[in-house]
Specification:
Strand content: 5-15%
Low-confidence stretches: 86-104, 286-290
Order of helices and strands: HHHHHEEEEHHHHE
Structural class: alpha+beta
Mean pLDDT: 78
Length: 290
């Protein structure tokens, strides 16, 4: 494959990275306005997801559109029939016959170096993508194995409630055909807090957060070198947590004071505990205590 052909195939990928960064900047600006004027943040979640999906699919669709349709030349030149006896044509023919194209050794060496850099970058990208994909598959396998090892306490529709004997916080997970909510055993001593946490985790399933986390993990594997995708993941994770809070409190069947106390307990439990498994969502998304 020639270097030009390789760059043509890589163009949509590079454009996607640029649009991903642009969409992130737009979402951060909107988020700052939301935080300042304090409207409902639940509407920000679908907007963020739509911006990310648009940045992924737009370059792919644009690659199938001919460039003549997207970018028309500012000046168009129509050529007519050439006359061999005309003076300009004779002059150009003479110059073309007496001039030989020569490539300097430095030019050839520079072209080889450029080709080597392009193919070397492509090789590094493929190698990094395979490593990221292997790590993602391994993490999903460990998560599924861990979920299968936990006892099922109850089933609510298609959601299986599991009990974990370890400390830490509750979290949710999803695999095709099955949805899970894992609750620490210490939470069963507080029935009121148990109901709040259970509603919170089930709301993650209703919002599609547990499905979205798989999609986002795959996108991170494809764009593993781009810091913007990790910022996307962090921002969307925060927004979806606030969306859960607003929806549950807005129904007025959960006391805001009791809900805030439950969030505080989840944050305290998260400090010093292990980080949540990949492919999961939960009240405390990190173990830093923030």
């Amino acid at each position: 494959m020639k270097t030009i052909e390789l760059l043509a195939y890589a163009r949509p990928y590079l454009e996607t990275n640029a649009l991903m960064l642009l969409g992130l900047v737009c979402l951060l600006m909107v988020n700052r306005l939301v935080v300042r004027f304090r409207p409902a943040q639940a509407h920000l979640l679908p907007l963020g997801r739509a911006l990310l999906i648009a940045s992924l699919i737009f370059p792919i669709f644009a690659s199938f559109v001919p460039e003549q349709v997207l970018l028309r030349p500012a000046v168009q030149v129509w050529s007519g029939m050439s006359h061999a006896n005309s003076a300009p044509y004779a002059l150009l023919s003479t110059v073309g016959q007496n001039t030989s194209a020569k490539v300097s050794p430095d030019g050839v060496t520079g072209l080889k170096i450029q080709n080597g850099m392009v193919f070397g970058s492509a090789t590094l990208f493929i190698f990094g993508f395979l490593i990221s994909l292997f790590r993602l598959t391994n993490r999903m396998r460990k998560l599924r194995s861990y979920l299968d090892s936990l006892p099922v306490i109850k089933k609510i529709g298609s959601v299986s409630i599991l009990a974990s004997g370890e400390g830490g916080v509750a979290f949710s997970a999803w695999f095709p055909g099955r949805a899970f909510v894992v609750l620490p055993s210490s939470l069963f001593m507080d029935p009121r807090g148990l109901r709040i946490v259970l509603r919170h985790e089930i709301q993650h399933h209703k919002q599609g957060d547990t499905r979205w986390v798989h999609f986002l993990a795959f996108v991170k594997a494809v764009f593993f070198w781009n810091p913007a995708i990790y910022a996307w993941g962090k921002l969307l994770s925060e927004v979806q947590e606030f969306a859960c809070d607003e929806i549950l409190i807005g129904r007025r069947n959960v006391s805001a004071l009791a809900y805030g106390r439950c969030l505080l307990q989840a944050a305290e439990s998260a400090v010093g505990s292990r980080v949540l498994l990949a492919g999961t969502t939960g009240m405390a998304t990190s173990a830093s205590g923030n």
